[in-house]
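Reading a protein record of the kind used here takes only a little practice. Each token is a code from a learned vocabulary of local backbone shapes. With that in mind, consider the following protein and its fold in token form:
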Amino acid sequence: MFEALSDRLGAIFSRLTGRGRLSESEVGDVMREVRMALLEADVSLSAAREFANRIREKAIGANVLESLSPAQTIVKIVRDELVDLLGGAQARLQFSDAPPSVIMLVGLQGSGKTTHAAKLALRLKEQGRRALLVAADVYRPAAVAQLQILGRQIDLPVYEQGQGDAVRVARDGVAEAKRLGLSTVIIDTAGRLQIDDALMTELERMRAAVDPKEILLVADAMTGQEATNVAKGFHDRLGITGVILTKMDGDTRGGAALSIYHVTGAPIKFIGLGEKLSAIEPFHPDRLASRILGMGDVLTLIEKTQSVYSAEQAKALEQRFLKQQFTLDDFLDQLRQVKKMGSMKDLLKMIPGVSRALPKDFELPEKDLTRVEAIICSMTLRERRNPNLLNGSRRKRIATGSGTHVADVNRLVKQFEQSRQMMKQMGLGGKRRPRLPTGMFS
């Protein structure tokens, strides 16, 4: 996501690094390149033009021409403008004072409304808000069954009437939520084109019947500028209050994310990042702007870590490190936790400075992690806890059992011991600077 835009902007700003004062014409040249980079990323023409013009005005007004570090000054202005273009501050869900709070999901067919209804319900459940899922997609034959299956997976109720009237299903679903004492209702509506007057009128009738607190457009980020046309069409008819942008983990140029707020004024509230029901995250404009400019995203990295590891677990692990009790069994557990957080490449890019340092074709193949996991799993419990037991015959057995070579086993054990030695040195109060191992997976 945004790799092409990030690379292009990085190249533009790197040419300014080390240069002295800029002339007004040079600032104009830089802004033209920035505008072209945005257009190539599928940002709408009006948004790209307005964005570049605002930066140019601020750059000249901020005495960039007299600055001895014009690149830093311009990058800061670009970051601030990117945050504004993406919606400014994080936009949170709004809830009614008197429950249930009604959330309508709308969008094109195939945009992922049903799946994201369940994703959103699961996220709210984890926050202590139980939701009723309402199957108001009465046109797609499998829609009701799909929502029922998803409801069972997340242990939340689903209200349905089969292939009935969509407006009545939504209205009766809200009444059912009141009867059950549930705090939230999430209505899954049928997919439709924003130019289909009959179906858009149905949504207007549904809005009048259930008085939703939120009307969220579920939009596919892969559709680029077309997503902004869709968003404008739905906003003109319904007054959408926010957007869930799906497939943000795919090969998207980012134009939709950078244009929707500019076109509609409706903020992106969540982004979908995969097929799992847990793969939905709140949208943070400031964090995404920093990532686009190669500044990392430490806060999201911390949140991802906390989602798989509690503070108590981290403290216990730290003590095991310092007391030299960290074993291959512990390392296997750590490896599996890291895999839950997503791809290693994406995690590394969240660390400031690493994004620019990584080679463009950098990949840490999943098979490397799988190979290390297979080697450790082929050891006995005693061997994992005490690698000193691993003589030649044992290592040969482990290599055979894991489908690897003895050299792979030797490398893993050696680098694990190097890591333990590093932790021992750190535990001595940092009197001696530890030497980092060359890499567990190389």
In short: Residues 59 and 334 are 46 Å apart (CA to CA). The chain has a mean pLDDT of 80. The first helix runs from residue 3 to 14.
